[in-house]
Specification:
mainly alpha; two-stranded antiparallel ribbon; 2 strands; elongated; single chain; about 70% helix
Length: about 350
Amino acid sequence: MAKGLLMTYALWAIGGPVGLHHLYLGRDSHALLWMLTLGGGGLGWLWEFWKLPNFVAQANRVQGHKQRSGEEGIPPLSLIRFAAQVMVGIYFGLVALISLSSMAGFYIVGLPLAVGLGVLLVAAVGNQTSDFKNTLGAAFLTSPIFYGRPIAILPISVAATITAQKHRRYKAAVESEALSVRLYRLGLAFLAFTGPLAYSALCNTAATLSYAVETLESFLGWFNCLPLLGRLMESAFFLPYRIWWILVGDPGFDNSQEWEKLYEFVHGVPDEKRQLAYQALGLSEGASNEEIHRSYRELVKVWHPDLNRHQTEEAQRHFLEIQAAYEVLSQPRKPRESWSEK
């Protein structure tokens, strides 16, 4: 049955952020992407308003040529798809970092798998797809280079995206499946993504919230060398309040106070880390760089595992704490801002 443009717009308006219109058009990968990202943070859903006629025409064209073996040639390179693959790969990696980081071998198996699947999901949107094995292979090969570091998410996502783009191709035509089968498959994929995060949040709420904030702060810290881009990313995270204020105006209560608390909470994490770092090095807050270096060198000599073979485990623990504290205090301290100053 041919797809109708009016029905597509109706579903877009009613359940667009969860991909109802894509499900109607048979674009299951796009529907799943919207389910997991709430319509690309709402921005992708709004941007699609002008793309719906093209989606409907494409769906009807595919229905009329079911026996075709697929389009020939290589799809054109799309910078939008490339950027979306990198961002969704990072998003999948951050969610995995929050919910699965306690898993044994996470940085070798869990993280590259999550990032690679995010990249492949975007690669499969529309009439395109990519090579599964090569894309995941690039993610797994990149992961050990940055083992144990949250920043690994970025290079893994970039490497997987480049590989997916290199092996991009048109999808082969397949017979249409029953709606129940498609919903079953989408449901399993949705549960696989949200299940670990929901379990972590319900069973260990405080730790999950704390780790989520640390992960967010670490993610924003990637852009320290690019202040303008860092501000842009922060603005994106606090975009919901700004949109609410523009559309509704003064809602009758001071909702900005709640966002101020959240903003202060996120940016208060580095201050707490620095306080703990000073304590680990036996220094008072505000110690000079020379004092930090001297204390670090002295403590490293005292707690080096090779010099404490009679208490290896304790020495290893102190040694790692000292290394982490020195790394935190070696980073320049950014001036604090309030939400209202942004």
